[in-house]
Task: structure prediction
Amino acid sequence: MQFIEIMREFFCLISVFSVFFGSVYGSLTDRYDVRLNRIPSSYVYRIYPVYTPHKPTIDGYLDDSCWEMAKRTPSAIADGFVYRDLGEFPALEPTIVYTAYDDKFIYFAFECYKEDVDEIVADLLVRDSSLWYDDHIQVIIDTNCDRSSAYYFGVTPENVQMDGYVAKDGELENENWDCVWYSATQINDEGWVAEIAIPFRALMFEMKEEKEWGINFFRLDRKQGDQTIWRDTGGDLYNVSRYGTMILKRNIDRSPTLDIQPYASGEIDWKTEEERGRELGVGVDFQSRIIPTMTFSGTVNPDFAQIEADPDEINLDPSKELYYPEKRPFFLNGQEHFDTPIQLFYSRRIGKIKWGGKFTGWMGGLSYYVMDVRANEARLMKRTDAPYYNFAVLRTAYDIRHDMALGFTGVDRRRKNERTTVMGVDTKYSAGDIATFDFQVAVMDKPEFENRLTSFSLSAYRYSSDLSFYTGYEDIADRFGECETGYIPYDDIRGLWNWVEYDFWPYAKGMEMIYLYGYGDYYKDHKGRDAMWEQEGQVGVRFLNGIELVYDFSRNMRVLESGLYRETLKNHYHYFLCGYNMLEWSSTYFDYTFGKHYRWDMDYISMASSFKVTSRLAIELGVDYERLKKRKEYYYGFENELVRYKPVENIWIFIVKWNYQITHDLFMRTFLQSSGLDNTWTVNALIGYNYYKGSHIYLAYNEWREYSAPGKPLLGRILFLKGDFNIGL
Result:
């Protein structure tokens, strides 16, 4: 009955929100109703790049013979861009794309017309920045032609590059995928021009006499806020299944490749002001494209000292482990393979690597990821005596049909007599715009368990520019959270969960978007007792002037348990957020949460601001403050002990970051943090220089101190110098 009551309240909340904002939305006018011209339904989204025996000069000027030939070949031209959020309405500012190729490269040339060239926004200078803050264009290529995955390449008018990879029809994105490619841009009186050359060696594809690839082109006009696209995708840019087609009729060179990147480093490590040590290091990373559809990556003694530290976070749910994203280059490529409902592989469990290797690729409809790593545990990675483990990982997925896939995950972690093995099978079925359905079953085995543990998840979801939802049922076995290879936030639970979001896009009355969000779940443990439940409702408005307002109310129940002691606690929270230009590089937000939090009355404030001081210097500021005031002076704690807490507990976290892009190839980054979680302050500073394509020199300085102790004693200090060199064969 409690479950029914919770779900009834949840859906009543959503209904009230929907009726109210539906009436508001119905009174709003469409800013596009004057655009009567539409793209004819007979338009064919298929292009045939011209073959050129003469390589063009990539300089941003379209005076090469291949572009003259492409301009005379209608089938090599992509035009007729439409608005991404409206599909059938042609863009007011035209964009024309010309295509060509030779034995080693595929070439694209964009002519981006702009009535007022002074409105072109091109401020970013850092490669792989989020180009959504600048005018830019993108080429998205589905070389597998599976209508599911694709590479994307973006360029701004200042020739700042961005690249990445998407999978599962845009559901998964790997922004850290990188390759060496070439581009040049020019701004003229009519707009701006981009010229791009992508080497075939950087892409995975099957060698066929005639290659059929998925293709799409995108342009963002930052000043006007217009997003235009060649082939309409229904609002989602990376909805690969709706892309057009590109045909390459001639054979191209696809011989094996090998990239080797050796490094050397030196480090001075202060454990105290007087005690210091020195260490020299050498290692190598290498990558080989053995066949066009298979890549082997290896590393020996890698060093990631140049990677930015994780900022401290206040965990508002002490029953759940914080999740940290992966930043190490060796693990980033292929992370999208492991986005399953039950995450059996979490690479942050792996600490310092001795050596590692992995194969990634696809063959026919089968994609695979095979990895073996010798490393210690993440929590012990700074200890020289930490034991090393072998981590073996296998992930495969087979496309049974274009709308159905079957996957397998296996992870094994072992050292002598210690072993953890997890395996899982998952399947996915897409019913088009209606929903996508997922099912996964996972098994974990450890020597100390009497029986293998089995968990499963069943879910359905839909993402769109208007109605999105995710609903499911999961059963996670008791002690499944002891899996040392994956990320399992809760175990010993079984129950339902769901969320729904509806987005209105009025573009009127000063409003850009109104969104409603609701969430609800209810879980029992395997003894039939209530384990946890949660309800949440949220409403937000984003205005055309960049202001965003959000209100959220949630309540939940959590259980604290230790031995024979078990306590049920109910919490509730009110959340307010006010942000300005939250989708721009210069942005500020303030949020305030208050309510009952376990045994305390809680006030939680978070503020963050990012802004550009100059075109080369960007600063980010962040402040988190949590104030806990206990409701009772005493309470009986674990094992019936009488425990007394402070009347008021205050936690502060201050973070300052700045990025200074001195030139396109030279940068300086700094990270400062003062954390009340462990009473420490941290300094990370990094200078990097890209002295050759794919080759770098890094100088890093890290320091940690305990600020609450007299004299602020040193906890650690590292001065680090590293140089690497990319050798492409």
About this structure: Residues 32-248 form a domain with the Immunoglobulin-like fold (CATH 2.60.40.1190). The CA atoms of residues 143 and 205 lie 5 Å apart. Residues 2-26 form the longest helix (25 residues). Confidence is low (pLDDT under 50) at residues 6-42, 633-645.
